[in-house]
Design a protein that fits this description.
CATH class of one domain: Alpha Beta
Number of helices: 19
CATH superfamily of one domain: Periplasmic binding protein-like II
Shape: globular
CATH topology of one domain: D-Maltodextrin-Binding Protein, domain 2
Structural class: alpha/beta
CATH architecture of one domain: 3-Layer(aba) Sandwich
Largest sheet: 9 strands, mixed
Helix content: 25-40%
Distance between the termini: 40 Å
Length: about 500
Amino acid sequence: MAVHPGRTERAVRPRRWSGPNLFLTKCAIYAHSRANVTNPQHAALPPDPGLHDTEFTASATCVAVYAQGGNVKVLKTVPIAAVAVVALALSGCAGGGDEAAETTAAGTLSVATWQFLEPTRGDALFDTINGFTADNPDVTLEKVEIARADYEKTLSTQFGAGAGPDVFVIPDAYFPQLADAGLLEPLDDVVSEADPAGLRSINDNYAVDGSQLGLVWEVVPYSLFWNTDILTAAGVEPPTTVDELITAAATITETTGKTGFSVRHQMNEETPWWTDQSNWEFGYGGEWSDGENLTIDSTENVEAVEAFKSVYDSPGFGKGQDASTYRSAFAAGELGMSIDNSSAVMTLVGDAVPADKIGSAVLPFPEGGSAYAGFAIGINANSENKEAAKDFIKWMLSDDAQQSLADTLFPSAIATEVDASDELLSANPWVGAFHEQVNNASSVIIAGFEADTSAIRTIVLTQIERVLTEGVSAEDALAEAQKQAEALTQ
């Protein structure tokens, strides 16, 4: 497993949850006791080609918020009573797999993802996974297409009735709800039998109480990247530390008149900023919790926010620029450096900045950690065709299938360290650093506080913005965030 020289691989703590339907129960209770968490202005955020987790927030109701590529949309307002009904329904079907009909590796296997509807890769993706039937001619794959905006709602309704697809893609923030409700079939035997080479450690994020309930389907990693022509013109080398980043950004602006460096830094992009900001804290060895207690005001997190403030105050930083603005600037050859996800960078390649003019490296932070936007794949615990479903997952972990998925989902990372084709990699050499960085990446869903992540996110980023714009110290701001978050979760 690739680890950056001089850095230790970031330990990934398996998630732990307890109690049936913890996610939905906490959502209902929280919705009743806490109001006005959601921010209506989120619906107006600019498009962002990166992929971010589906989130659940709450006001007087439990509100599902979808953030795909930073374009946050309030999808559905679910009355508290409805949340309770779904929780009871899920509780009723949890463990239902014990009563499922005896299965064989034959018949129709339904596979669900919103990605089948994507115009640029939907058909190619189904063609890729349909390769499973070549080795399993008695199985027919059924494509289950659900619009992204309706995905979690539709699946929850189906699962509540003891139905739903056999195999399905799971946005990270939906995973806790399914795990708590007992709706995910354990995959330990599948992984053991498949014995895939180079299984990424990030798969540990889908292990709950020692049981593997999901595997990586697609991971959108982060990295530092730059316009090589701009750095050459400014006479600077790619930075490997934050101090070097500050100096390089300032030099670029001074010598070329272009913005040296920019990343998200404003509350009007709250949901995607949370993932972007977590790169700094994770990169300095921090975490938002230890799995049982919040650690917002840890020494590592304070150091990370202080570093971010130093970059923000640099004369080379693009203050006030949102993601749409600085991404457009990079695509036009007017921005030197940024930290962003691989899907976003892929959209920036063009005539002004061709792929061979983009350089990249792992993040310039001392402990090597980072965040990611992720999606798992799992098996419905109530499936009546579990044998075929498990055979599908085993096939998915094979070298040939992983190779095909790596090409189809490029530039995202997948479950194993299998690389995309030489043709794709040679045409996009910048991708390598992103795939190296993902080995040290962690989820931004707060361990032990999954259902409260969105509310805690608002608290933390509000305080970090005060550090940037009001001169509040990082130590004081994160201490206040810790206090507010603890009050929220008690």
